[in-house]
Design brief:
It is a single chain. This protein has 189 residues and is of the alpha/beta class. It has a single domain, classed as Rossmann fold. It contains six helices and eight strands; from the N terminus they run H-E-E-H-H-E-H-H-E-E-E-E-H-E. The strands form two sheets. The chain has a six-stranded mixed sheet, sandwiched between helices. Helix 3 packs across helix 5. The structure holds zinc ion. Zinc ion (ZN) binds next to helix 1.
Amino acid sequence: MVCLGCGRWDKTDLCRACGTTLVEAPDRLLDSDLLVRSCYEHGGAARRLIHAFKYRGSDRAGWLLARALVCLLPPAGVLVPLPRASWRTISYGIDPAFELARRVGSLSGLQVWKGLSPPLYKSGQAGRSRSQRDPPIFWLKSEPPATELILIDDVITTGRTLLRAQQTLAHPTRAARVVMAVTATATRD
Ligand SMILES: [Zn+2]
C-alpha cells in the first residue's frame, strides 16, 4: 500500500519516517473550564493525514485518526461532532468531524449525537484571518441527551469554535454537560 504521509510504498498506513514526524499535542484548558485533548500537533504527517481525510475523503486516513482519538476518550459519554458550515460540506463532500465521530463511535462503542446544526458564517469574514473571525453560531436540532457530552472536531486552532459549541449545549435546566473535547490535531493560529 501507499504511505498516507509521503505516498511511498510501505507495509503500513504510515511509514517509519512519517511516523517520526507525529508530535503528541499537549492537553489544553480553554477558559479554565473546557479540557481539550488532541492526538497530534498540526504539522508533518499529521497535517497531511488531516488533509487527505478532509479534502480527499481518504477512508484509511479517517480510520488512522479515529484509532488515535479513541485513546484520548473517557470510558463513557456521548460524542458530539462539530458540524462544518453547509457550503464546506457540499464543496468537499465530507463533514469531517461527523465522519471522525462515526468511526470513533464504532471503535469505542460510544454513541454519536448529531444534534448541532451547522453554522452560517457571516459574509465579509472571508478576508479575515481565522483568529479575527467571529466564532460560528451553532443551533440545536433537538434536546441533547441528558448525559456527559464529548465534543469532537478534526482540528483545534483558537478553540473558540469548541467554546461556542459548549455554550450552545449548556443550559442550567439541562442535565447534558460537556465534559471535554477531543480533536485529531492542534494548531496555533
Ligand atoms: Zn511516509
